[in-house]
Write a structure and sequence with these properties.
Elements (H helix, E strand, L loop, with lengths): L4 H28 L4 H7 L17 E4 L2 E4 L1
Antiparallel strand pairs: 1-2
Amino acid sequence: MSQTPSDKEAIRAARIAEAAARALAEAEERRAAGRSPEAVEAAMPAELGGRNGPEPTRFGDWEKKGIISDF
C-alpha cells in the first residue's frame, strides 16, 4: 500500500515532534542537574598562572601588563 504525500508529512511531523519533546526533556534534565554555564565553569580545574576573575577571552581580547591581544 502506497502512502499519500499527506500521510508522509504527518509521519514526518510526528517524528519531529517526538524529537523535540526528547530535546526539551534533556534540556530540563540538565537544568535540574545544575549544568548551567556557571556550574560548568566552576567544575573546571583552576588555571595555573591565569588571570583572576571571569575569563577575559569571552570578550574576544586579552590584556596582560598593558599589552592587548585581540583574537
